[in-house]
Design brief:
Elements (H helix, E strand, L loop, with lengths): L3 H4 L6 H18 L5 H15 L4 E8 L4 E9 L11 E3 L4 H9 L3 E4 L5 H10 L3 E9 L2 E10 L7 H43 L5 H18 L4 H13 L9 H4 L7 H8 L1 H9 L9 H5 L21 H15 L11 H10 L7 H14 L18
Length: 387
């Protein structure tokens, strides 16, 4: 005998499924943008514009303390163009906008029935209809969504619900990104602790690693390496010598040349560093770069004797940055080389010790930005003042 509840279930009609499927598909497109906030907001602006066949969409960040909104992402369907701006607008100048921010209730209007300030904005932009929604993240106002249309139209309740649903998905993605950023801050603190532990054994290494990380980031930009991969290279550069924790201090601080046995012991630090990082899931992608950071283009490096493109690109970047920094820094057994001499040595060893493209990128960076300080706004900061 069939179950009574099951017998009452009716399959959804195609017209009932369509709105849900559209939200799901749009959310999948948003997810494909990755974790970058600006990319997510730009993707949301485009999805919303196409979602309800509108003309354009602007997304602004809300600053509740200051009572302002700041433009941060926009999209306009051809033949329209959305000129990127970074303007800040006081909410007090736009009563309807302030109402959306305060209450979270959607607002729509046309040029003929809008409040004077909103009407003026529509006319200036060349549009005739507007829909505003609040974007919430973790239950708090985060952004303002403004959807524009060149036609005079009334946004239907179903369209507003669909846009609200997609905005909710975007808010959840941004919340996950925020959590990821907080976790990353914790990971950076872990890196600092590891570097401090190494500094206790080898006084120069902590500054050395921070500066190499800075230089490696600049070289990655010169090579057009994607931001996500560049970030991994900078982190790996920061930790590339962490395995020296396992090397006796008498070897690390020796003022003269190392014996063959001491050299072999020193070279173990690449493998030791990889073993230290391997158990930490967040560091998994750094392990191959740290392990291979002392390989050479001609195959005479360590620990595996990898050559040419068998060496991970990030490790090749770290290798040339490490060598350049080492030559321009005082050591207990020698004085630093002048920057010009160090650059000449990098050029001489291009194609043997160093990947030629990485070597040329480093030289371009130093010529353009100078050394020892590279003036860049990065997570990893230089640890000393210019000399």
């Amino acid at each position: 005998m069939p179950d009574d509840d099951a017998a009452t279930v009716r399959p959804l009609r195609a017209d009932q499924l369509e709105p849900a499927l559209r939200v799901i598909e749009a959310a999948q497109h948003l997810a494909a943008t990755g974790g970058d906030l600006n990319d997510t907001l730009a993707g949301l602006a485009r999805q919303l514009t196409e979602f309800i066949d509108a003309s354009a969409c602007l997304i602004s960040r809300i600053d509740m303390e200051r009572g302002t909104v700041n433009d941060c992402a926009g999209y306009a369907r051809p033949p329209h163009r959305w000129e990127r701006t970074a303007e800040e607008h006081p909410l007090s100048d736009f009563p309807c906008t302030a109402g959306v921010v305060d209450t979270g209730a959607p607002y729509s209007c046309t040029a003929s029935d809008a409040e004077p300030t909103e009407m003026r904005l529509l006319v200036e932009l060349g549009y005739r209809s507007l829909l505003m929604l609040r974007l919430d993240v973790d239950g708090e106002p985060f952004g303002l969504i403004e959807i524009y249309d060149e036609r005079r139209r009334r946004f239907a309740p179903g369209e507003i619900r669909l846009c609200s649903a997609l905005a909710g998905e975007a808010g959840a993605m941004i919340a996950r990104t925020r959590m990821s950023e907080r976790l990353e801050e914790a990971y950076f603190a872990t890196l600092g602790a590891l570097a401090a532990a190494l500094e206790a054994k080898d006084a120069y290494t902590n500054d050395h690693a921070s500066q190499i990380a800075e230089l490696a980031g600049a070289v990655c930009e010169r090579l057009d390496i994607a931001p996500g991969e560049s970030r991994l290279v900078r982190l790996a550069a920061l930790l590339h010598d962490i395995g020296k924790i396992g090397v006796p201090e008498v070897i690390l601080r020796k003022p003269g040349p190392l014996t063959a046995r001491e050299t072999a012991k020193m070279r173990q630090h690449a493998e030791i560093g990889a073993r230290i990082l391997k158990p930490v899931p967040h560091f998994a992608e750094l392990v191959p770069l740290v392990r291979a950071s002392h390989e050479r283009w001609d195959g005479t490096g360590y620990p595996e004797g990898l050559a040419a493109e068998r060496i991970p690109l990030g490790a090749r970047v770290i290798c040339v940055c490490d060598a350049f920094h080492a030559m321009t820094e005082d050591r207990v057994y020698r004085r630093a080389l002048p920057v010009g001499d160090a650059m000449a040595e990098i050029e001489r060893c291009s194609g043997s010790q160093f990947d030629p493209e990485c070597a040329e990128a480093l030289l371009d960076v130093v010529r353009a930005q100078g050394w020892p300080r590279i003036a860049r706004d990065r997570v990893v900061r230089l640890a000393h003042d210019p000399v």
